[in-house]
């Protein structure tokens, strides 16, 4: 009897593949290439993706045998869960696999932005010893506004506390008592914008959060503010941020995510005070191993008709 087929559409850790190999036929495709993806899903039982593959109604129409789509990561914004449910396809993810990694990357961008690390590095590699040009700012005593106190936002806040920063947060879904327990003061969005020296975004991409930081909001911030987004592209409106940087209404930005990815060219890239990385928020060996094994185990359970617990 032939084995059920698992289609891996993006890089999955070897540990994850090892979980699958004995029981399933594992096939590979580049999920970002729709012309390759659509025929490839036709006869598979499971599909494993990360953030580059759009698992939407079109995919489910082509995937006649699909029983489970697994996202090796936290967010589900590239999976149309409603369309999957209509098509009878189970959706699983690895909700805690990369939360520490994502929080650490936000801190890396925040520090890099505060201290001009990539700019100094690039200049020195060109043989330029420019000390005063890359004078930065301290974190101690500064106010950091955490947008979204979910799992990753909390980890970021806890780490930023070690820098002796005052931590404020906007999250309409969290209780003030829980925030106080974390040493975080809950504020309104406008208060956060007005008071923060740094803003770090830790929100999922939803209808409510898309464009949440737009032109109006970027007119409320202090000109010293540095904005970090290692969550999802589009939560900070890119055109509005470009305008704010151009007009000196924002002192810098650290961006790991973009409204369209892959993104290799953007007006934001021209600003010297913008530090960019190519959606590396979840990219550590540890997080990828956890994400890979968690989703592989969930796929195995789902294809055996067993209950799939929350990871
Ligand atoms: C996530 O949602 O966990 C990440 O964006 C996954 C990824 O890096 O593909």
UniProtKB/TrEMBL annotation:
Described function: Catalyzes the reversible oxidation of 3-phospho-D-glycerate to 3-phosphonooxypyruvate, the first step of the phosphorylated L-serine biosynthesis pathway. Also catalyzes the reversible oxidation of 2-hydroxyglutarate to 2-oxoglutarate.
Species of the source: Actinocorallia libanotica
Enzymatic reactions: (R)-2-hydroxyglutarate + NAD(+) = 2-oxoglutarate + NADH + H(+); (2R)-3-phosphoglycerate + NAD(+) = 3-phosphooxypyruvate + NADH + H(+)
Keywords (A to Z) from UniProt: Amino-acid biosynthesis, NAD, Oxidoreductase, Serine biosynthesis
Record-stated family: Belongs to the D-isomer specific 2-hydroxyacid dehydrogenase family.
Pathway: Amino-acid biosynthesis; L-serine biosynthesis; L-serine from 3-phospho-D-glycerate: step 1/3
Superkingdom: Bacteria
EC primary class: oxidoreductase
Protein name according to UniProt: D-3-phosphoglycerate dehydrogenase
Entry EC no(s): 1.1.1.95
């Amino acid at each position: 009897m032939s084995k059920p087929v698992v289609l891996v559409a993006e890089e999955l850790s070897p540990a994850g593949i090892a979980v699958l190999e004995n029981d399933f036929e594992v096939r590979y495709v580049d999920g970002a290439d729709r012309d390759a993806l659509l025929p490839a899903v036709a006869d598979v039982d499971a599909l494993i993706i990360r953030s580059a593959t759009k698992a939407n109604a079109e995919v489910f129409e082509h995937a006649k045998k699909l029983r489970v789509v697994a996202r090796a990561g936290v967010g589900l914004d590239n999976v149309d869960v409603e369309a999957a449910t209509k098509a009878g396809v189970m959706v699983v993810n690895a909700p805690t696999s990369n939360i520490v990694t994502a929080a650490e990357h936000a801190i890396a961008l925040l520090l890099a932005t505060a201290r001009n690390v990539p700019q100094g590095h690039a200049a020195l590699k060109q043989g330029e010893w420019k000390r005063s040009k890359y004078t930065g700012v301290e974190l101690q005593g500064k106010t950091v506004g955490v947008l979204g106190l979910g799992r990753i936002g909390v980890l970021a806040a806890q780490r930023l506390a070690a820098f002796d920063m005052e931590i404020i947060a906007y999250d309409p879904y969290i209780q003030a008592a829980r925030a106080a327990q974390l040493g975080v003061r809950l504020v309104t969005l406008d208060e956060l914008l007005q008071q923060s020296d740094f803003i770090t975004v830790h929100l999922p991409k939803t209808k409510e959060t898309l464009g949440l930081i737009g032109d109006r909001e970027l007119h409320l911030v202090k000109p010293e503010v540095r904005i970090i987004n290692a969550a999802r592209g589009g939560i900070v409106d890119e055109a509005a941020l470009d305008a704010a940087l151009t007009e000196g209404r924002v002192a810098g930005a650290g961006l790991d995510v973009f409204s369209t990815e892959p993104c290799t060219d953007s007006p934001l890239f021209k600003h010297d005070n913008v530090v960019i990385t190519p959606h590396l928020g979840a990219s550590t060996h540890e997080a990828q191993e956890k994400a890979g094994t968690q989703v592989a185990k969930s796929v195995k359970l789902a294809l055996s008709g067993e209950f799939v617990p929350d990871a």
